[in-house]
Design goal:
By secondary structure, this protein is mostly helical. Helices cover 79% and strands 0% of the residues. Helix 2 packs parallel to helix 8 and helix 6 runs antiparallel to helix 7. The two termini are 12 Å apart.
């Protein structure tokens, strides 16, 4: 049995969701992208939560959250010259996230992932091909983002389909939330350009809060599972 400090877990989980709720309230009240200013604090609170509750405290997880934090800060500054750096940091943390999930799941057979990848690529590249007003200099960035998001969706969905046990539920939830978040952002930016729909903004905020907490949960559960297996083998 692996014991963790439940008091730390409850305390810092509460801090994470307290920041999230305050950010959501401000976003609703000011009817703007105020939540961007709260994202760095969410990343920091997840770092502390992981540090206090993980039995491994893996450096890769901290690296993922560091680049997530950096991208949040760059976007929050709202300076056009920094946008490209923010996008690059997004690519870095998503690549690290993909590698880390593969490592946690100990994936060896990638055929199911490749099969699951096809519908995700089809959906996102269909949306890409039909969208109007995408600047040509954004084509390459969107293609990379479509591929990375599709890979995350394919890994999480194929793992749940092949390994239907309770811990894989965290993986499925994370994948579902992460892909849906990207889908809504894409629709809002390239299909509803200039149309201010608060329901989209609030939905994206809630999905963001839930998605990264699910990522934390799946990492903690996979680490715990691995340690329990080691104890059973001994």
């Amino acid at each position: 049995m692996i014991f963790k400090n439940e008091n730390n877990s409850r305390l810092f989980t509460g801090v994470y969701f307290a920041i999230a709720i305050i950010g959501l309230i401000f976003d609703l009240y000011y009817s703007g992208s105020v939540f961007y200013n709260f994202k760095p604090f969410l990343s920091l609170s997840l770092m502390v939560l992981y540090w206090k509750t993980s039995i491994k405290q893996n450096a890769v997880f901290f690296a993922i959250l560091f680049f997530l934090l950096l991208s949040n800060i760059l976007f929050a500054l709202k300076q056009e010259k920094l946008i490209i750096y923010a996008i690059i940091t997004i690519f870095i943390y998503e690549i690290l996230m993909i590698a880390y999930i593969i490592r946690l799941l100990k994936l060896k057979d990638f055929v199911p992932c490749l099969i699951a990848l096809i519908p995700f690529l089809f959906i996102f590249f269909y949306l890409f091909s039909e969208a109007n007003g995408i600047p040509e200099n954004n084509y390459g960035l969107l293609i990379v983002q479509n591929i990375l998001t599709s890979i995350i969706g394919a890994i999480t969905f194929s793992n749940f389909a092949l390994n239907n046990y309770y811990r894989s539920t965290w993986i499925l939830l994370f994948g579902l939330l992460f892909v849906t978040l990207y889908f809504l952002k894409f629709i809002e930016k390239y299909y509803l350009y200039g149309v201010a729909l608060s329901v989209f903004r609030i939905s994206e905020t809630v999905l963001y809060i839930a998605a990264y907490f699910m990522f934390y949960k799946l990492v903690i559960d996979m680490e715990t599972s691995e340690e329990e297996k080691k104890l059973d083998d001994n």
